[in-house]
Amino acid sequence: MALSGTTSPTIRVRLFARYAELLGAEVIDLPSAGMTTAGDVLAHIRALPGGAGLGESTLMAVNLKQAALDSRVAPGDEVAVLPPLAGG
Amino acid sequence: MGFLTTESIRLEPLIAQVAAPDRGGVATFLGLVRNHHGGRAVTGLAYSAYEPMAESVCRELIAETESMWPVRAALSHRLGRLDIGEAAVAIAVAGRHRDEAFAACRHLIEQLKRRVPIWKRETYADGTAAWVDPTREQSVATGDERTGMAPW
After folding, report:
1. What is the pTM of this model?
2. pLDDT 10s digit of each residue in chain A, 88 long?
3. For an engineered disulfide with B132, which of A44, A48, A86, B100 has Cβ 3.0 to 4.6 Å away?
4. Which residues from B are below 8 Å from A when comparing CB atoms?
5. How near does any CA of chain B get to the CA of A9, in Å?
6. Shortest CA distance to B45 belongs to which of B109, B89, B13?
7. How far apart are CA A43 and CA A32, in angstroms?
8. Does residue A87 sit at the B interface (CB-CB below 8 Å)?
9. Is residue A58 less than 8 Å (CB to CB) from chain B?
10. Would you list the domain boundaries of chain B?
11. Do B118 and A26 touch (CB under 8 A)?
12. Which domain holds residue A65?
């Protein structure tokens, strides 16, 4: 799903575990135009095929830090959509 | 040193990392793969992680724990496929006395479960597999391996 061959600024979205299976991808590069918060990114992902299966209280991370939905995002950021954690 | 590993994990190296002549209390926790979950027979599991974030959060948890109690703490978490009875997570905490060692060890495992981005896919005796969702206290069935994606 990477937008190869384009120079438009993107946000790299990383998906894991069940969410990667639902979306059929572990990495999606989204055009960053119009996306100012982590919640904006999540809304785009939910609108993709398979995205409706994401949980309501999905955790997000921006550049490796857990982030609230109103956290700001910028071109070049790595935004992660985290399924319920199950370590330990 | 990394906190995540695909190799077998043992307590002894962690204890060696935290032990010191002035620390008389060492508390440890070892989490093993269970052969049952939610009433189903589990035959094995695979852990996957958002590795750079998981390493970063583990480092934060160690620093946080060592700032809350006068202890030294160490942990390892396994990734990849594990069989029943294998160690999934190991923690060692050393303090001057047992009280702070027990409290800090408990804090570490509870916070690890809440904050470290690691996921667990269980396989069951009937051949099915599912991602574990502790927020539902049950597994979310995802069917077979049809996506062909490795779980880590």
Report:
1. 0.89
2. 454 555 689 999 999 999 999 999 999 999 999 899 999 999 999 999 999 999 887 899 999 999 999 999 999 999 999 999 999 9
3. A86
4. 31, 47-50, 52-54, 56, 77, 88-89, 109, 112-121, 131-136, 140, 142, 147, 149, 151
5. 23
6. B89
7. 13
8. yes
9. no
10. 4-141
11. no
12. 10-82
The answer to whether position A46 is within a domain reads yes
Residue A15 falls inside a structural domain:
yes
Give the pairing type, strands B71-78 and B4-5: parallel
Q: Which fold has domain B4-141?
A: Aldehyde Oxidoreductase; domain 3 (3.90.1170)
The nearest alpha carbon in chain A to B56 belongs to A64
Residues of chain B contacting A66 with CB distance shorter than 8 Å: 115
CB atoms within 10 A of CB A5: 5
Tracing tokens 């910028």 back to the chain, one arrives at A74
pLDDT in tens, B127-145: 999 999 998 864 455 544 3
pLDDT at residue B1, as a whole number: 55
The DSSP code sequence of B48-66 is EE-HHHHHHHHHHHHHHHH
| A5 contact B CB<8A | no
ipTM: 0.90
CB atoms within 10 A of CB B90: 23
* Helix, strand, coil fractions of chain A, as percent rounded to 5: 20, 30, 50
> And the tokens for A53?
């299966």
The number of angstroms, rounded, from the C-alpha of A71 to the middle of its chain's C-alpha atoms is 13
